[in-house]
Amino acid sequence: MTDKRTADGMKVERAYAAEVVASALRHEVRNKLASTRNAVTYIRRKLESSDAWDGDERIARFFELAMSELDAADEVLDERIDPSAAFGSHVGVHELGECARRGATQLQVPSRVELHTDFGEQTRVRIDPEEAALLVRCLVENALEANEGSGRVTLRVQRQQQEVVLEVTDDGPGLDELTPAEALRAGVSTKSGRVGLGLAMAARVARRYLGSVELDRVESETIARVRFPAPEDET
Amino acid sequence: MTRLLLVDDDDGNRLTLGALLEEEGFDVQEADSYETACACIDGGRYEVVLLDLHLGDRSGMELVPAIRREVPRAAVLLITGSGSGEDHASTVDGVLTKGQDFGTLLDEIRRGLGRR
Predict the structure, then answer these.
(1) Chain A within 8 Å of B3 (Cβ-Cβ)?
(2) Nearest to A130 by CA among A157, A108, A103
(3) Per-residue pLDDT reduced to its tens digit, B77-90
(4) What is the pTM of this model?
(5) CA distance B77 to B73
């Protein structure tokens, strides 16, 4: 099958995937560094009043070294991968419906899946079009996987009062035993062999533009819903 | 003795930070999850609550309304990864960075107590 993503689209996707994975690792490693630092502090306090401390100058030096190495490790964790640095930023006010339409054209939709689209009017939001297309691809691909190559997926973008709401609905089996918060986390998937980055990447795009992601189950349909604020001059 | 509730789902952090705080004279109660923290807060008596932002699938911030209701005199200090606590600074009495120097953490706890 031909990959329909643009060159910029692929750069965006790689940058987001890298940052999502790094963020998950960062959180876990930071916890370990913090508890190690606390343990080193505790042991130092106990040793400082002992004979061993005064008897070997390297003990104090090695404690200093341990703390400085922990500081250095923290600094490495603080480095972030900025998606816009990967491809240049085209952030502006764009019709989210048009961005969604574009993202949908880049999808590989199985022939047995009915993909329905519904794009309303006045769906302008502040976003980068490639990142919006990535968000749509991630949500729709997640829905297509949930349907296991058949069924119905709906992509809808509508203005609702002061918000622009993008919804992807599928009639697949739902989240199994996952909570919505778990499903949005990187590395979590209901499908064996899947890395589980798509929803986490979509959530990251949404948050970058002050949006929010919800997962809902209504009757026999799963809904991934992203809410963006409408631009201030349009509220 | 100042009663302190330490809410953190990371075992290593809870163990080591709890030990350091006890050495400083705090009476430390530990909660390893959102649910355990809810049980501690209900009817609890604390002067300080140290709250990790990330509690598994929940946010530590979800506990703040219950803390303000059940233990209104407690200073609530949020513990976060680098740069992720600024959004919540106005809702709590202090924001601590995970892994920061213990002396700095103690100063922030005392400042938080002073604000309440």
Answers:
(1) no
(2) A103
(3) 999 875 566 667 78
(4) 0.65
(5) 13
